[in-house]
Every structure is written in structure tokens, then in C-alpha cells.
Design goal:
Strand content: 5-15%
Distance between the termini: 43 Å
Radius of gyration: 15 Å
Structural class: alpha+beta
Strand order of the largest sheet: 2-1-5-3-4
Oligomer: single chain
Number of strands: 5
Length: 152
């Protein structure tokens, strides 16, 4: 049994310490916004924040998250940055199929928390680990710039 702080709430998780955070979130806690993509930390669909940093929850064990703060797509709008990113995503109609979008939003929010006025190169570097099979990369970049302007 482990206690995970998810979106500001301490939650008991009955899982083996080696269980990936992704499965603790989805299967044990019923939080299905974080998606399974590849299972090897290559696609970014499972991105969540661990103490404010984007991580791939499919390869991060519960034992590494205990005692730290996890923010998921369900909780990202609890602050101004997450709200701005989500609003920009809607305004720029970023999502096509939508499967990768929770991971994309989580990576974008982490970027804007670290750098309020990112360049295209900053965006490309921060988003490089997030794959969008629909190819909405130009809309992702435009939405991040929009969110940055909103936050300025």
C-alpha cells in the first residue's frame, strides 16, 4: 500500500511498488485521462507532472512517486498556466483524434511554467518526446505561443 498525492489529494494505492504510475492512476484510481501509448517512454501520451516536472508515467514506478506531488490532466487546470494551455488548445483546435493530447498539454504546461516566453526552438525541444500521429505539431506550437501571450 502506498499513498500518492494526486492533484492535491493524498490517495491510498494498493499496488506493488514497481507498478508504473500510469496503471496506478488508470486502474486503481480510475483516472483515465492519462493515456497508455507505447509503454516505453517514447511517445509522451502518458505524461504527468511529478513535483512539477513532466515524466513518463508508463515507466515511473509508484515507489518513485511516493511522497511527491503528481499532477494529471484532470488537475492541470487548477492553476493559471494549465487553464491558459487548455484554452489555447481549444482556440487553435489542436486536437484531431485527441489521443495524445493529455500528454501534449502536460508537456506544454510544464514548459510554460519553466519558460513564460518560449521560442520555437524551446517548444520543439520541450515537445520532442510527444508524438502526434495526426501531425498537429503546427497547431501545438501556435497554441503554446497563444498560452504564453495570455500569461504575459
Amino acid at each position: 500500500m502506498a499513498t500518492l498525492n494526486v492533484n492535491g489529494k493524498d490517495l491510498a494505492v494498493d499496488a506493488d511498488p514497481s507498478t508504473p504510475v500510469l496503471w496506478a492512476l488508470r486502474d486503481t484510481l480510475g483516472m483515465t485521462g492519462t493515456k497508455f501509448g507505447c509503454g516505453a517512454a517514447l511517445c509522451g501520451a502518458c505524461t504527468v507532472h511529478l513535483d512539477g516536472q513532466p515524466i513518463r508515467s508508463c515507466v515511473t514506478p509508484v515507489s518513485a512517486a511516493a511522497g511527491k506531488k503528481i499532477t494529471t490532466i484532470e488537475g492541470v487546470a487548477a492553476d493559471r498556466v494549465g487553464q491558459a494551455v487548455q484554452a489555447a488548445w481549444v482556440k487553435h483546435d489542436v486536437a484531431q483524434c485527441g489521443y495524445c493530447q493529455s500528454g501534449q498539454i502536460m508537456s506544454a504546461a510544464a514548459l510554460l511554467k519553466a519558460k513564460r516566453r518560449p521560442s520555437d526552438a524551446d517548444i520543439d525541444a520541450a515537445m520532442a518526446g510527444n508524438i502526434c500521429r495526426c501531425g498537429t505539431y503546427a497547431r501545438v506550437r501556435a497554441a503554446i505561443h497563444e498560452a504564453a501571450r495570455t500569461l504575459a
